[in-house]
């Protein structure tokens, strides 16, 4: 964004777009639309905190998926740092999924 001031909303949308390129290896839906991202907080210095969950605490992707999401978010222009927090409460359920994800998985 040469010469343009990037707002937190713009940065947030770019982070979401990057996260949407991450897929749960067992479910053919991106992690954002799957409902695994609970929150994205950006401070004034462009440090990002992403609160997320997995489909279960026994998810085989417990090591790799958060790291992939962190790397994708860190690759967004303007992001200074990214911290991932795994959260188990509330537990994942299909009500967290976007309508597009539900449609893709035949739940609608």
Automatic annotation (TrEMBL):
<dbReference type="InterPro" id="IPR002744">
    <property type="entry name" value="MIP18-like"/>
</dbReference>
<dbReference type="InterPro" id="IPR034904">
    <property type="entry name" value="FSCA_dom_sf"/>
</dbReference>
<dbReference type="InterPro" id="IPR052339">
    <property type="entry name" value="Fe-S_Maturation_MIP18"/>
</dbReference>
<protein>
    <recommendedName>
        <fullName>MIP18 family-like domain-containing protein</fullName>
    </recommendedName>
</protein>
<dbReference type="Pfam" id="PF01883">
    <property type="entry name" value="FeS_assembly_P"/>
</dbReference>
<feature type="domain" description="MIP18 family-like">
    <location>
        <begin position="12"/>
        <end position="84"/>
    </location>
</feature>
